[in-house]
Amino acid sequence: MAWLERHWDRLTPVSLALLPLSLLFCLVVGLRCLLYRAGILSRIRLDVPVIVVGNITVGGTGKTPLVLWIADLLKRSGYRPGIVTRGYRGASRHWPRAVTPSTDASEVGDEAVLLARRSGCPVMAGPDRVASGRLLIEQGCTVLVSDDGLQHYHLDRDIEIAVIDGTRRFGNGLCLPAGPLREPVGRLRTVTLRVAQGVPEPGEIGMSLVPGQVYRLQNPVEQADLDDFRVGSVHAVAGIGNPERFFSSLRSLGVDVIPHAFPDHHAFQACDLVFGDDIPVLMTEKDAVKCQTFARPHFWVLPVTAQPVAELTERLLNRLKESIHG
Predict the structure, then answer these.
(1) How many domains does the chain have?
(2) Which domain holds residue 174?
(3) For residue 123, is it within any domain?
(4) Measured between alpha carbons, how far apart are the two ends of the chain, in Å?
(5) Do 75 and 157 sit in the same domain of this protein?
(6) Is residue 93 domain-resident?
(7) Of 192, 202, 187, 183, whose CA–CA distance to 51 is shortest?
(8) Region class of 41: left (phi > 0), else alpha (psi between -120 and 50), else beta
(9) Residue 1: per-residue pLDDT
(10) Is the pTM of this model over 0.90?
């Protein structure tokens, strides 16, 4: 997959050769949307408002930090939010699964466990988002946030938020497999809000990812200052959609990085993090949930928090009130 992604940021002989498959992919996507609009494929409306957060590109855009920010905003605004997530690459035999901070990430996926640890909200994982949503409503949730559900049309939604990578944007503008798009760029005209991680373009709301306090993976209450990692080099580990974003962020903070990129949602094993020395290993929070069981004293975690501009708070809460009151 990594070799193919190198051809997604521009038109190359490889991407052009894959263009017929890309056109077929777009045709299938368009037909599926048409069937939902015509009512041939059913949308299920639940009894509480549903906010869907997703993207139209493959790879990381900062979606999960934004979901956590939205959940916190909703709690502070008097709602009882619940989070629905796919449980991608989870090996559980039974779905939906309630996710707690201590749930095994191999069972429900790394993002589900991270959401449970950081949000303080009920989290339900499973391929059937409607079934997950119903269970959360039974638990008393008054609004649902669906993580990475933009293309899951079976669950009807009141608000759609598309997250955009402000640097990579939409690559060569082609759909899979010739480009990075899950849906054509025109899909963005139908969403409620567009949030750009980085520099926004007209019609988009800006968002930045702010580094948090570094903590030791073996003992999360033990924290360190970033200054401690500016002396010498660190092994930077990232198995996320856009590892370079993590490496670049560290460099911008003055850290001398030895980068180690892994595929998105990589199932880490202890041998993956053996580099033949005791140089500090600094990783993302999403990767850390899969490395807890074999953590060593020099493994450290750098969390990030989404920080959208104030406009998003007002527009999101106003739209939510409109959905509730008709």
Answers:
(1) 2
(2) 2-79+142-208+307-325
(3) no
(4) 45
(5) yes
(6) no
(7) 192
(8) beta
(9) 62
(10) yes
Q: Identify whether 190 is part of a domain.
A: yes
Give yes or no: residues 16 and 157 share one domain.
yes
Do 229 and 192 share a structural domain? no
pLDDT of residue 299: 96
Nearest-5° Cα angle at 242, 237 to 246: 45
d(CA 301, CA 220): 9
Q: 9-62 pLDDT, tens per residue? A: 888 889 899 999 999 999 999 999 999 999 999 999 999 999 999 999 987 788
Q: Are residues 29 and 67 in the same domain?
A: yes
Tell me which amino acid residue 293 is.
T
Joined tokens for residue 270: 């202890």
AA letter at 155: L
Are 217 and 313 in the same domain? no
Give me the residues of the chain with pLDDT under 50, please. Answer: none
Distance CA 84, CA 127 (A): 10
List 306's β-bridge partners, or say none.
Answer: 209
pLDDT in tens, 216-230: 999 999 999 888 899
